[in-house]
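Reopening closed ticket. The problem is back. First fold of the pair:
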Amino acid sequence: MRDNRERLSITEEVDLIELIERLWRRKLLIFGTALTVLIAAVAYVFLATPIYQAKVFVQAPTQNDIANLNYGRSEGQGGLGVLTVKEVYDTYLRNLLSESLRRKFFREVYLPSLDGKVTDRGQDELYARYVKALRVTVAGKDTPDRYSITADLPDAQQAVKWVTLYARMAGDLAKQEVLKDARSDALVKAGNLEQEIASVQETARKRREDQIVQLREALAVARSIGLEKPPIISGNLSTEVSARMDGSLTYMRGSKALEAEIENLEKRPSDDPFISGLRAQQAGLAFFRSLDVPAESITVYRLDGDVELPDKPIEPRKLLIIVAAAVLGLLLGCIAAIIANLLRGRVRVGPGA
């Protein structure tokens, strides 16, 4: 049993040595195949179009960046609510990740950059290439509100331009949306104030009309009793009666005073000076009607760091391709040598059979 194992081990060693010797006899074939594959790989490395990658990170703006957006806003009752950084940045991210922006960039930037070089390709194929070249992804699991915009292009400067432009286009769309909503809120507030002002003015007008009716009735009573002037009452009773010359005792003011007061009320051009708080409401109305935040005064996102011009391409990976080609070439050469030996053995065995 032991002798059988030893003979088997010796046989395996002999077979391995014989295989190595046969491969060595075919070394020219092996190294020739490896060299051919290696030359092809080197040619690909130096002839392939290099791809450069530019990447930019975007994050939420600061409170100071949106300060002008909250001009005239407060958390007080009846006021416009304060816009938070999260609300503004969510609007930016919604536009950044939208298909409408991706399509707009494809039409306005990507297609014009081709200069008619691939006019034979369909729109779907071009769009698929574009989606691979320009990507928007979350920067990391620990920072879900931080996004990266990546462009892989043959031109390093163009890659930098694209990621910067894409971030800015999303910012412009978000600004338009935020400012439009802010303007709409201001106009709604102005409309509400206008209705409130009209309501209090109408109430004041009706109150004046009611007052005139009451004074006319008092005037009729005063005339009926021949009271032209307020009666002269001495002592503490005079003070008490004077203080109560309204309501049913209004006639005690006398017909002359009542006629003058009625005439004054009828000729009054406006009740506005007599309405409490009206001027503040009118000032608020004028403010919200004219409220218009300049787009350049707010920022809806921030770039996290500068966009650097890539100096080395990410593709092709020269060293990896050359090493892989060398290994693959040797492997193919060995396979070719083994096949050549097998074919040669069959040729030798054939005539003897």
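Second fold of the pair, where the issue appears:
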Amino acid sequence: MEIKVVDIEFPKDCNVILGTSHFIKSVEDIYEAMVNSVPGIKFGLAFCEASGERLVRVEGTDEELKRIAAENMLKLGCGHTFLIVMKGAYPINVLNAIKAVPEVCTIHAATANPLQVIVAETGQGKGIMGVIDGFKPQGVEDEEGVKWRKDLLRKLGYKR
């Protein structure tokens, strides 16, 4: 078995969601979850088949984001995994809908941070062992940090 680190590459103004699902039907169902959660959302979705033709299946509303998702999934190559690259919306807007898709098994990451995927490769194929989302902490928040966090949530409209 070989362990590799795969960098997920996406534009700085985008967020990504990486997950595992179990059926080709996921592609259309995740697409519907996205557009029903945020009308007009811009995203690309790519799904790696684990059997049959073993293709990367692609959907979305934006050709460039579809291309970015597909290129990342070809590089990642883990069966039954999907990647959403989204712009103009945030994972918090769509995660509950995606998790409610019957085929979705796991969400590994939902982030705008640099994302690395730890992949195990055997003679059979590849699988996600874990993810590295962003960077390690530099300390513990103080009162000023608490104030900044609370102010940010209000500025973004998530709290009153």
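Update: turned out to be a display glitch only; the data is intact. The radius of gyration is 17 Å. The chain has one domain: 2-155. Please close again.
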